[in-house]
Write a structure and sequence with these properties.
This protein has 290 residues and is of the alpha/beta class. It has one domain: Metallo-beta-lactamase, Chain A (4-Layer Sandwich), CATH 3.60.15.10. 29% of the residues lie in helices and 23% in strands. It has 9 helices and 12 strands. Strand 9, helix 5 and strand 10 form a beta-alpha-beta unit. Helix 8 packs across helix 9.
Amino acid sequence: MLGVNGGPVIAPGEAQPALALVVNNAVYLVDCGLDSSRQLVHSGLGFGPVRSVFITHHHFDHTSGLPGLLLHGWTARPPLSFLDLWGPPGTKAKARNLLAGFEDDISLYQAGGGFGPFPAVEGHDVELPADGTITPVMEDENVVVAATRVFHGPEVADSYAYRFTIKCTGKVVVFSGDTAAHDANLIALAKDCDVLVHETQDNSAVERIAAGLPGPQAAELTKHLFEAHSSVLELPAIAAAAGAGKLVLSHYTPTVQPPEVWLAMVLPAAEKAGYTGEIVAPAALDVIPL
């Protein structure tokens, strides 16, 4: 769990969304928030094993770490050599333009830094049908990846959840991305999964956060948070509907709180919903075994 803090505001000591699925020493990132490069180093994973990044949507708290991943991955030992970037329409263009403005900086190190070839990036626009049909995205020797649409507010035309099936074990991990509860497409994607990683929000804190903004901004933020995110109290019912073996909280919004606070909120909701699977409220850099 490289970064579990949601939203575009940087919080001291926290890392923005980035989740690493590690299979046979290959790393598949789901989202790439600002702190992803540093968190890869802190985690001990490094850059060399990174194969692909799967973007859930184009809010920049999920994408602002991409330039740093390439720049610092290039100079790492072992280096990042190649990156596949998958995501909603616009991802291919994002891959082409990620390093605009860095050309001179890169050329200086190419001339005198002792580094190898700059990592190649291939962008892939994942086109999903409007009806929410689960659609294959990618397959390699380690994983099979599928995706579906989820609702993240009317202004976000394309927001995706991803399902990874690990070939060597058959285990299934689903990442919700940012979505409002209860998303039927997500529940179908997560049917009988081993692990559901789901975004979470403390609705009781929304109005307190919005109160510090001017009236129109406060109203807009409140509307977005309530209609486009999932209350922590709703997550056990979602996991139960999907038959998920384990529920992992992520993308904590709208304010930073210790994991034990989130766990204290979700456990009574799990009892009420009849969800008996394991629930984990991780901190950044925690490892969730499969």
